[in-house]
Amino acid sequence: MRNPLKSEAEAFRFVVITFGFFVGVVVAKLLVGWWLGLVVAIAGLGALAYLLRSPEALPPQPQQAPEHVGGEDDLRILVVANETVGGETLREVIAQKAEGYDEEVLLVCPALNSPLKHWVSDEDGARALAQERLDASLARLHEAGVNVRGEIGDGDPLQAIEDALRTFGADEVIISTHPEGRSHWLEKGVVGAARDRFAVPITHVIVDLEAESEEIV
After folding, report:
1. Given this model, what pLDDT does residue 126 score?
2. Do residue 85 and residue 18 come from a single domain?
3. How many domains, in total, are found in the chain?
4. Does position 8 have pLDDT exceeding 90, yes or no?
5. Using one digit for the tens of pLDDT, what is the confidence trace for 34-69?
6. Which of 48, 54, 52, 53 lies closest to 19, judged by CA?
7. Are residues 25 and 96 in the same domain?
8. Does 198 lie in the same domain as 105?
9. For the chain, how many helices (H) and strands (E)?
10. Are residues 38 and 79 in the same domain?
11. How confident is the model at residue 109, as a pLDDT?
């Protein structure tokens, strides 16, 4: 579920719609009767549902590509991954893309949380788990000689990408997911939505952690 209080503008819009909804129900019931109040209530709930629906369902908002930072040999890669952040496949792709460049990699791990805990701002557990996965992956990438740093991002991967692009002029974005059928992000259409929304090349890397585990065994 989308958090309507992510920005001041969205918070104000949420308050206005909610206030107008309840005022409309009360006025309609007093002036006409309960049946019109019911109609207004249904219409108001529909408006609130539209406001709260996930970003993937909203019309895409294309953004301008960030300017390239540095010279021809400089490369900035933004990587967004959650549970697959520690996958060997992802590390290999990052290392391959960075080879031959003076690279700078930003690895963002969204702190996924349940809708209930998100609404009550109980995100400590989700952030702690995301930080553990992030630290382990950063250590492995540093061992491979990759110039990388990491941070915890918004629980919504599209918002996490948008937030990172504001301060990190990425030349490319890598989105890592589980295989189809086991990936919540693929079910939500995150990769396609990212390609529609961001004017930056998007690479989708599929990491099968189960297969990697079997190979290790």
Report:
1. 75
2. no
3. 2
4. no
5. 555 555 556 655 655 555 554 444 455 556 666 677
6. 48
7. no
8. yes
9. 9, 5
10. no
11. 92
- Residue 41's pLDDT is what? 58
Measured N-to-C along each axis, helices 34-52 and 8-31 cross at an angle, to the nearest 10 degrees, of 170
Give the strands of the sheet with 102-110, arranged side by side: 148-153, 102-110, 74-80, 172-177, 202-206
For residues 42 and 204, the model is more confident at 204
Query: Residue 69 domain-assigned?
Result: no
The answer to whether 202 and 195 are in contact (CB under 8 A) is: yes
Q: Which domain does 34 fall in, by range?
A: 8-53
- Residue 1, domain member (yes or no): no
Does 59 reside within a domain? Answer: no
Write out the two tokens for 140: 């492995």
Token digits of residue 9: 């503008």
Name the residue among 212, 60, 82 with its Cα closest to residue 155.
Answer: 82
Same domain, 79 and 41: no
Is 172 within 8 Å of 78 (Cβ atoms)? yes
Angle, CA 23 vertex, CA 19 and CA 28 arms, to 5°: 150
